[in-house]
């Protein structure tokens, strides 16, 4: 059986469509993964303005208009092709299904938002360790005490992902990820978690804790779960997202988002 | 009297507020200029999706929500602080006033879109000629036969600006402008105008013709007048824009949009 890293995106999506529910870090190496945010059309403008005002956590890669369930980034169906979803009603998580056909409505607009998994291949190629891939876990994500710039009905905190990096490789991690501005780009913070209001790295708000080894520095990137935090705080009547770490594997290549 | 190039943005905006109507190329050198697109709120989502799908001609720098007339990029009033506006009703140009207070409504959303004037300082500093500044004219702009990717009710052609560049400096013009992706970035086309459906460089659709000298190549950049072309084609009930070449001079510095 082909290893997940070697599956083509359409093959990965077919497995998820068939019901496989797993975090996607390391899947279809070389292809871009995306966060999903689905909102009713009358909140879609607020979300796009929110994304425009908070480009580090919310880099929009594509928008599927109301009534569209496929697009240039996926030859498939956004309602079924992710491994796991979250459904929020009035900001409360009500369901974590493996497809959302039952929740779908014709007025829903889907936003595909860049994901930091995209630059992990480049980190690994450069010999920068990616601990959650090494440990076969979901990436750890934390809600910070930094506020996003609000837009319309949407407001919320910045959410970050964390990767421990050996002190001598932090500059490489910054430089390499900085070449991918469309998928969160360079870190927002290097070092002391408390400065972001994170009390305990061992207790992430989303995903799994990973080992931080002696000589390593926690490095924090803006995270595409930020829109989910805004949804939880702003309580729209309906929102559908991917489950954290369970991304859309797109047909775009990581190199499509590389800035020379 | 201070030369236009040496005026601070707020000083330039004060002159325009007082009624001065002039193209802004070369004004407040080192500060970013922006295209303005103002649409009723119920078309704002379509515009933001249009911009997201056509980032080269429509790089959104900021959005003023319905009811807002100022923002972080301008300490002033977007209804009065540009030198000249265009007002479109059902896609027809009905007015070119020097302020739009009389046309304003509370449901209007303002989009500030990047402008290629932003990288002209960098071109000039590198010794790449900018002919329309030399000749004290408005930049020449052309409607092409390339279609933008449509979004909702908005569709239209790509509009480009043109600068003649000596053959030996084309690579520098590409390299330098490419460092400013938020303000149209690298050219979309170098050379033969006919390949873009442009019949005669001497007859631009907007702005003024400039001299193309022997040994120079016409270089075409995506242009922020593209939304105006979409407005003319898509005929929304009301749209307000800047007059081509008569930009918002913002408080942001060109260097804010420089990618290292």
Task: Set out the fold topology.
The structure is a homodimer of 260-residue chains.
Chain A: H1 9-17, E1 31-40, H2 41-53, E2 60-64, E3 85-89, E4 92-95, E5 108-114, H3 120-125, H4 131-134, E6 141-147, E7 157-166, H5 170-178, E8 189-190, E9 216-222, H6 226-234, E10 238-242, E11 248-253
Antiparallel strand pairs in A: 1-5, 1-10, 1-11, 2-5, 3-4, 3-10, 6-7, 7-9, 8-9
Please explain how this structure is put together.
- The structure is a homodimer of 260-residue chains.
- Chain A is α+β, with helices and mostly antiparallel strands and 260 residues long.
- Helices cover 19% and strands 26% of the residues of chain A.
- Chain A has helices at residues 9-17, 41-53, 120-125, 131-134, 170-178, 226-234; strands at 31-40, 60-64, 85-89, 92-95, 108-114, 141-147, 157-166, 189-190, 216-222, 238-242, 248-253.
- In chain A, the strands form two sheets. In chain A, strands 1, 2, 3, 4, 5, 10 and 11 form a seven-stranded antiparallel sheet that branches.
- The mean pLDDT of chain A is 94.
- The A-B interface holds A 41, 44-45, 48-49, 52-53, 60, 62-63, 65, 109, 151-152, 181, 259 and B 41, 44-45, 48-49, 52-53, 60, 62-63, 65, 109, 151-152, 181, 259.
- Chains A, B: It is an enzyme of class 4 (lyase).
- Chains A, B: Pfam families: D-Glu_cyclase.
- Chains A, B: This is Putative hydro-lyase ACFSDE_16760.
């Amino acid at each position: 059986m082909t290893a997940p890293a070697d599956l083509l995106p359409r093959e990965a999506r077919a497995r998820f469509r068939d019901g496989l529910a797993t975090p996607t870090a390391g899947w279809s190496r070389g292809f871009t993964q995306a966060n999903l945010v689905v909102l009713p059309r009358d909140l879609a403008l607020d979300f796009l303005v929110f994304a425009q005002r908070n480009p580090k956590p919310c880099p929009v890669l594509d928008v599927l208009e109301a009534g569209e369930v496929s697009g240039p980034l996926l030859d498939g169906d956004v309602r079924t092709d992710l491994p796991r979803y979250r459904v929020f009603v009035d900001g409360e998580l009500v369901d974590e299904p493996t497809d959302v056909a039952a929740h779908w409505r014709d007025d829903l607009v889907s936003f595909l938002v860049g994901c930091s998994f995209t630059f992990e291949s480049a980190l690994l190629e450069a010999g920068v360790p990616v601990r959650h891939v090494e440990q076969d876990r979901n990436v750890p994500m934390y809600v910070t005490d930094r506020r996003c710039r609000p837009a319309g009905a949407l407001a919320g905190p910045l959410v970050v992902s964390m990767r421990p990096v050996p002190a001598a490789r932090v500059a490489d991690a910054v430089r390499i990820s900085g070449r991918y501005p469309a998928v969160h780009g360079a870190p927002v913070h290097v070092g002391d978690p408390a400065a972001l209001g994170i009390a305990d790295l061992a207790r992430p708000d989303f995903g799994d804790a990973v080992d931080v080894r002696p000589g390593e520095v926690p490095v924090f990137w803006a995270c595409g779960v930020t829109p989910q935090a805004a949804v939880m705080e702003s309580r729209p009547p309906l929102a559908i997202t991917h489950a954290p770490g369970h991304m859309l594997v797109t047909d775009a290549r990581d190199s499509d988002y590389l800035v020379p």
